[in-house]
Amino acid sequence: MKLTKKVHDNNERGARRALLEDIFNDMNRSRFTVYKMNFVRGIFFGFGSVLGATVLIAFFIWVLNMTGALVPGLASFVNDIIHIIQK
Q1: 69/86 Cα distance (integer angstroms)
Q2: Cα angle vertex 82, ends 57, 71, to 5°?
Q3: What does the pLDDT look like over 9-47, one tens digit per residue?
Q4: How many domains does the chain have?
Q5: pLDDT tens column, 49-67
Q6: Which H, E and C letters describe 15-64, residue by residue?
Q7: Is the model's pTM score more than 0.90?
Q8: Using CA atoms, how far apart are residues 66 and 54, in angstroms rounded to an integer?
Q9: Which domain holds residue 45?
């Protein structure tokens, strides 16, 4: 019983993989289009990563600035960190 279920699952997984490969090959007839598509995806992924990191760092600096304004004892420490980051 257990072996037949395992064989059935493997057959189903293989059929799904073959179907996905057929669909991929039908949509992308040449390797050049696949390489071009992956290159463009890589550019957008890199741009998105840089943009996201910039937004997170700006938000972090803003939070540090607000923390320095609210807590007077931390103001000099936060200002030192902000000056280091701005360099």
Answers
A1: 18
A2: 100
A3: 787 888 888 888 887 777 767 778 878 888 999 999 999
A4: 1
A5: 999 999 999 998 888 777 7
A6: HHHHHHHHHHHHHCCCHHHHHHHHHHHHHHHHHHHHHHHHHHHHHHHHHH
A7: no
A8: 18
A9: 2-86
